[in-house]
Amino acid sequence: MTSTPVSPMTTPLRVGALTAGGAILATALLWTSAQVLGIELRVDPRNGRAPGVISLPFIATLTLAVCLLGWGARTLLDRLTRRAPIIWAVLAVLVLLASFLPLLAVEAAGAAKAILALMHVAVAAVQIPVFSRRRS
Predict the structure, then answer these.
(1) Could you give the percent of the chain with pLDDT greater than 90?
(2) Who wins on pLDDT, 47 or 41?
(3) CA trace torsion 112, 118, 121, 126 (10° rounding)
(4) Under 8 Å CB-to-CB from 54, ≥6 apart: which residues?
(5) Residue 107: helix, strand or coil by DSSP?
(6) Rounded distance, CA 136 to CA 124, Å?
(7) Confidence class for position 74, pLDDT limits 50, 70, 90
(8) Residue environment code for 67-76, b if the CB has 16+ CB neighbours within 10 A, otherwise e
(9) What distance lies between CA 125 and its chain's CA centroid?
(10) What is d(CA 11, CA 43) in angstroms, rounded to the nearest whole number?
(11) At a CB cut-off of 8 Å and minimum separation 6, what does 133 contact?
């Protein structure tokens, strides 16, 4: 039995970690840009609770959680079907579209909503191309 050597650059763990790191970096850069531009990332959930400020640790933690969920979903799909790349990509686009719904439900400045929407797109822009590729 012969085995194909796996490059350390393409191990699933490394790819997943680099993808999560890239997504966190992208959202952190957008958060930093908002701070530099004077855009306050404050949202009012309109449910009687006080408005909340979206902080960098919150953004980083949430981005990491989303990346881990996406990675886990792709890994599970790989075990269940040969069509994992296309199924994952379709699911990812649907999740991206659904992620905009909370932005419609909260009260926030237009610039804040724009930055938050860009963060959603940035995470998708990092994850979708990586996790929708066929693995060898």
Answers:
(1) 67
(2) 41
(3) -120
(4) 31, 41, 42, 43, 112, 116
(5) strand
(6) 22
(7) very high
(8) beebbebbbe
(9) 8
(10) 39
(11) 85
Confidence of residue 61 (pLDDT cuts 50, 70, 90): very high
Three-state SS for 100?
Answer: coil
- The token duo for 25 is 């970096």
Cβ contact 120:100 at 8 Å: yes
The alpha carbon dihedral of 53, 115, 102, 75 has a sign of: negative
- Burial group, residue 47, by CB count within 10 angstroms (0-12, 13-18, 19+): exposed
Which phi-psi region, left, alpha or beta, contains residue 38 (left: φ > 0; alpha: ψ -120 to 50)?
A: left
